[in-house]
Protein: Formate--tetrahydrofolate ligase
Amino acid sequence: MKSDVEISQEAKMAPITTITDQLGINYDDLEQYGKYKTKVNFTPSDAHQDGKLILVTSINPTAAGEGKTTVTIGLGDAFTELHKNVVLALREPSLGPVMGMKGGATGGGYAQVVPMEDINLHFTGDFDALTEAHNTLAALIDNHIQHGNQLNIDPRQIVWKRVLDVNDRELRQVVIGLGGRTSGVPRQDGFDITVASELMAILCLATSLQDLKHRISKILIGYTYDRKPVYVSDLHVEGALTLLLKDAIKPNLVQTLEHTPAFIHGGPFANIAHGCNSILATKAALTYGDYAITEAGFGSDLGAEKFMDIVTPRLNKTPDCVVVVATVRALKLNGGADKKTLNVENLDALKKGVINLKRHVDGMQQYGKPVIVAINKFASDSMEELTYLSNYVQNDLKVTGEIINSWAEGGKGAVDLAQKVIAACNNSDKFHELYDHENSSVLEKMTAIVTRIYGGSTVELSRKAKNELKRIEKMGYGNLPVCMAKTQYSFTDNAKELGAPENFTIHVSDLQLKLGAGFIVALTGKILTMPGLPSHPAALDMDIDENGRITGLF
Amino acid sequence: MKSDVEISQEAKMAPITTITDQLGINYDDLEQYGKYKTKVNFTPSDAHQDGKLILVTSINPTAAGEGKTTVTIGLGDAFTELHKNVVLALREPSLGPVMGMKGGATGGGYAQVVPMEDINLHFTGDFDALTEAHNTLAALIDNHIQHGNQLNIDPRQIVWKRVLDVNDRELRQVVIGLGGRTSGVPRQDGFDITVASELMAILCLATSLQDLKHRISKILIGYTYDRKPVYVSDLHVEGALTLLLKDAIKPNLVQTLEHTPAFIHGGPFANIAHGCNSILATKAALTYGDYAITEAGFGSDLGAEKFMDIVTPRLNKTPDCVVVVATVRALKLNGGADKKTLNVENLDALKKGVINLKRHVDGMQQYGKPVIVAINKFASDSMEELTYLSNYVQNDLKVTGEIINSWAEGGKGAVDLAQKVIAACNNSDKFHELYDHENSSVLEKMTAIVTRIYGGSTVELSRKAKNELKRIEKMGYGNLPVCMAKTQYSFTDNAKELGAPENFTIHVSDLQLKLGAGFIVALTGKILTMPGLPSHPAALDMDIDENGRITGLF
Structure:
């Protein structure tokens, strides 16, 4: 059986200009990165984004993921098989996890975006530019303090940390500025992973270079000794930071193994950030495609909720159909099976675990749009398990379901699903907002998410979070949407509570004001914004030979 | 008067494929980054690198630099004017200083490589890839310790720091791994600027992907509790790190304003590292051009010495001619003029300062190759000053000299110099090694550099350096060349000692074993491997408008 990277390296790709010609993108608007990747100079216009929008999400995943990207790509290729003009809008992989865990963000098997070995590594440098811009701002803040601190910034109240696109637990909590008078001011600091940077969220929400600069200027970087907020605009460096992102803001276009066009742009994690690819890329997909298929990170409780509540108002478009990806494996895990035995048939665990799927479907139905379940087939699934799950979807959930086998079969393995998605898009209903965006309080918004999406009962704020909420409301930002930072493994804030727990409380430990992104991050449970590497990192098995042949990259 | 970035943004560039067609580079070997930048898949062959090699270096610079890159580019354009097939081989700019000080590394005025706004920012992502690979290794080391430390690595003896391409003094000395058992092991650490990374030196010295991997495997990362060395190969991650650099190793090709081809690849600083662009790029220039012009960082005491003693044995080629760039301004500074009055005529200071030029010329003549002085004209130079300097070069130094005015005139301003360089290349003599590479000791090598290039008298090692030297010799690495880390402002290790001091001692505070690069770094004086930002960083004046028009980037 071929590895993902072998399939990618053997693929017969079309020159990217063949893809852009098909889409009618002007050659002058391209900035190619090699022969198979290009940035596109794209100016969005709401008047032209008339494609149908399909959002792919999932149940609570296992550590290995549920193949949501594989399903998204396979579904796109099925649209291509059906001669539909479809464009994907996906997230860029983060390099940190690539070096840590097996399993990429570029699909798998015969449903991949290619060249995966480039997309998974530095791609077109967007994350590097974000890292550089983020850390340049950090250096400029400390440099301001070093040179007299005219703004009176309190080094104990700086909220702008540093970032790296590396899974490096060693940098979570650090003390910097040691070494005496010429080497800065000693203070406590920390590093997040780049995908958690507010600049990543900003890049994904900005609709133009001008909007990007405006959002950057609004970033809250800390407080003065007398507790007044300090913004990037106070430092006068929004121009320089925007300059560093002048190419990163342009959506990247590649293709699938079956030559379906795919924009891949931006990639905040959905557990610690808002979890959706860039608005510019999604707008481009809606403009150039009759159908745009996008995905949101982790389960529907995370990425999809944020897509609905944070992204759609800025996108000026809501999904015409929502696809929830489920797997027998993950449902068995949610039903109590040991994670080491997920390859073994276990109908009991599956029967217990389907309540997890039910809650995801219920949650997505809150928004009033058609919901379809895609059962992503794994080789280890038994016929009985797949049959049981199909029947459950049809008879108990009473929604459309379809088994998909794109990992093995590419687009062909998703044609039936594609036909049902097309039918659903043609019967799409009115979008319902989860909460009143104008008039509800921060607590009301969190409560709506917890009760109506997670199925919990209450929200509890720590003393620190309560104080921060008071400050936020006093500063006049109580009307912003909330971006929940929560484990992807559970509806609760405890990664071990699988299935569909009832009557639980979500514990908010802290609130963070992200004024450039335009939302408030609520940190729940023990969420980490800088991951670590496992005891046997994937990096140990990677290699490249003298001819450039790669092994061990999934 | 137009700014550098205005000139660049208004330039009529040729499509990069026009340039590669002229050079006979196969289209299949290109990986374009937009329409005006490309990476070149280049496999070097010593048999084909038959171009003449010209090395451009300089006197001790002012803080603003002496326009060495401007001269190099102007000289290249003059060769083009003379219908010679010339290819430049330059270093990539580091982003850290771009945000700090005015003055880029892409030339200036009408002698620039373009698009300068891209080259000065992220270019093709090489430095980002180096940063990522460097920090991935750091994370893997700490992760190894976290997960049981099978190799018995002593956290107090790790010599692999972290890096960022940001001027960030706050990160020079840090404590990492705080936060308890799940967040690493607390220890002292520090960040260098990316150009100081051993990976940068390795990238610039590697001759193939295989050589790159082999060098990476040899990197010394620290010592065990019982003082045994630990290498990258012990961690088994040379494959993953090479994979991260698979594109960075490919030379980048751009053009000057006058369409002269220019490879720009790699860029270690010459004060804290070896200061020369990549061997692959220089080999490519020697292969595709009849003349290859390269430059080495800072004064001839730094970059050029390292080019001669570290690079040429690995390049299998020595320069046919050396061009020393001098300016009236810098010589006046070296003659005691106040740096604020360098625009004012001051023949007295100039007459005192020319001894700095003399020592650089003397040093370069040690290698037996023709030396030519290029007097880089500034608008503020008086006729009397320029005449005095020209006469001094001709009558006192008895070497060929020529005034060059490429900043204002491009290639036309350097045609006379170009003709003299061509003549010199045709009369090039045998290369003399500065020291016996096989048989001299580390101390003998340092002494040769200090006495014959710097004009000093002795080398003094600190107690720490002496201990390190003992360890290095005991480990069997006493035969490696030495890479001096020294201030660029003085022949001595004290930045304030200008001119041409006599009878001085160079103080070596520490030695660092760079086994992947294959040299020993000797830290002298108070050299910093992580710069800081000034009180008014250049970033504060940069901007980009909604049409992408850039201001404030030089």
